[in-house]
């Protein structure tokens, strides 16, 4: 019997989001610990994780302050929910802190265990509100093709990826508009401004066709993350926000990836100059040291939901670990580490180096474009640079590049035909060089 970690992992695990032929051929990387932005496997091999775990481990894998915050809270009060009229003191403090660092002058916070659950919670809030405000038809959710909002039934329905059809999703009433990716979706001879105007017209037309009073919200990531680190076309949010406002449709910013520093501002909506009605947060919220998500409601939704809740006597929703005190203690520390202990500053310092490195790699004849914002970016592989013709197959080329990187001790993510980089915020410029050198080597090897 093969008793290797790789064989044991394959025998005992049911894999999700994993290319099985590749796993069968290459084996599973089983990790035991980390140091700064590096992770180490059972064979003692070290990898620079340009993926930050899954966009979340921004403070690295051995941050003493985060571990200490967890230990102190485990010692004091290891767990409690946040309902039935009870919650931990840490939960109260975190809610106040989140509102303080949010773009809202006031608001309310609801906790979940993940970003998906936060998005499903948001949908239930909007549907609850629709019922309470005597608009039971206001249930449709608008998102975009290529968006990623999670895996639970509502969040998966919001997600604009074709793979969800294997589950018979999306659920009815979840509508996907065009992905605002100018390089890929722009017509020949269409300027970026004209493209943005077309996106805005599509939104207007959709609202007119469906009826504004049937639409509960428009939900968008400031930069699409799992869609392939796709920033919106220039002026996109400035064009769509007034349309949504005119029709009283809430704009929700899914900041699970962008929130708390990734784009170079505290929130992605700040990077793109729009004011959402609510923010969905997770990932950097605990720097990956605890599974946690949050719906941060701005003043209007907070007031209306509170009123609806008072009338109905309760909003019947919550998770056993909602507002878990250890998660809240870690989140309080993570927010401090990012905002006050130099991580956001480092994102800003590293961004020009990151952009330079990406631009250099994009000179490769098989890289069609580089795109990104702050410390997140993607390189899109193409068979023909002039015509932007993709390579055949869904993942093949990007998977080969990522696998070659892994062989050289660099973890990065193949997403469609692109390679996505979202390194931890603690990266040094030397580690940034290492990341680009290894990726350049992999490109030279694959092409
Ligand atoms: N929303 C966005 C923008 C995400 O990127 C993700 C996950 O990557 C989610 C929601 C879902 O979060 P989770 O995986 O914690 O359920």
Automatic annotation (TrEMBL):
GO molecular function list: adenosylmethionine-8-amino-7-oxononanoate transaminase activity; pyridoxal phosphate binding
Keyword terms: Aminotransferase, Pyridoxal phosphate, Transferase
Any single biological process term in GO: biotin biosynthetic process
Domain of life: Bacteria
InterPro entries for this protein: Aminotrans_3 (IPR005814), Aminotrans_3_PPA_site (IPR049704), PyrdxlP-dep_Trfase (IPR015424), PyrdxlP-dep_Trfase_major (IPR015421), PyrdxlP-dep_Trfase_small (IPR015422)
Database matches in PROSITE patterns: AA_TRANSFER_CLASS_3
Zinc-finger is among the record's keywords: no
Named cofactor requirement(s): pyridoxal 5'-phosphate
Residue ranges the record marks as coiled coil: none
Keyword hit for Transferase: yes
Entry-linked Pfam families: Aminotran_3
PANTHER family listed in its UniProt record: ADENOSYLMETHIONINE-8-AMINO-7-OXONONANOATE AMINOTRANSFERASE
UniProt similarity note: Belongs to the class-III pyridoxal-phosphate-dependent aminotransferase family.
Annotated protein name in UniProt: Adenosylmethionine-8-amino-7-oxononanoate aminotransferase
Biological source species: Rhodovulum imhoffii
């Amino acid at each position: 019997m093969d008793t290797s970690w790789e064989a044991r992992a394959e025998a005992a695990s049911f894999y999700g989001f994993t290319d099985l032929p590749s796993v069968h051929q290459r084996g599973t990387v089983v990790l035991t610990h980390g140091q700064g932005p590096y992770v180490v496997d059972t064979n003692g091999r070290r990898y620079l994780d340009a993926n930050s775990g899954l966009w979340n481990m921004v403070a690295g894998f051995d941050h003493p302050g985060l571990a200490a915050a967890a230990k102190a809270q485990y010692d004091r009060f290891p767990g409690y929910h946040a309902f039935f009229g009870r919650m931990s003191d840490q939960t109260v403090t975190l809610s106040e802190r989140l509102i303080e660092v949010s773009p809202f002058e006031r608001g309310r916070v609801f906790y979940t265990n993940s970003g998906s659950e936060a998005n499903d919670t948001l949908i239930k809030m909007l549907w609850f509100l629709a019922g309470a405000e005597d608009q039971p038809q206001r249930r449709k959710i608008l998102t975009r093709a290529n968006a990623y909002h999670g895996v639970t039934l509502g969040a998966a329905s919001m997600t604009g990826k074709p793979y969800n059809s294997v589950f018979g999703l999306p659920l009815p009433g979840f509508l996907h508009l065009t992905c605002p990716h100018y390089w890929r979706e722009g017509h020949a001879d269409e300027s970026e401004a004209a493209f943005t105007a077309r996106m805005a017209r599509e939104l207007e037309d959709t609202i007119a066709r469906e009826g504004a009073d049937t639409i509960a919200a428009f939900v968008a990531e400031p930069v699409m993350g799992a869609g392939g680190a796709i920033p919106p076309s220039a002026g996109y949010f400035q064009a769509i926000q007034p349309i949504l406002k005119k029709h009283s449709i809430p704009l929700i910013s899914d900041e699970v990836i962008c929130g708390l520093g990734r784009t170079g501002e505290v929130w992605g909506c700040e990077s793109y100059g729009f004011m959402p009605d609510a923010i969905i947060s997770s990932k950097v919220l605990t720097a990956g040291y605890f599974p946690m998500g949050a719906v941060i409601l701005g003043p209007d939704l907070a007031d209306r939901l509170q009123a609806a809740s008072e009338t109905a006597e309760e909003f019947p929703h919550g998770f056993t670990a909602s507002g878990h005190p250890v998660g809240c203690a870690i989140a309080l520390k993570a927010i401090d580490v990012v905002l006050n202990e130099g991580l956001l500053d480092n994102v800003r310092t590293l961004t020009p180096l990151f952009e330079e490195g990406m631009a250099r790699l994009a000179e490769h004849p098989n890289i069609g474009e580089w795109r990104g914002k702050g410390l997140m970016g993607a390189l899109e592989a193409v068979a023909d640079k002039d015509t932007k013709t993709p390579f055949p197959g869904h993942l093949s080329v990007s998977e080969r590049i990522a696998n070659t990187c892994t062989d050289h001790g660099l973890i990065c993510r193949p997403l469609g035909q692109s390679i996505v980089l979202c390194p931890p915020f603690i990266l040094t410029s030397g580690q940034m060089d290492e990341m680009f050198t290894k990726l350049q080597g992999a490109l030279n090897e694959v092409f």
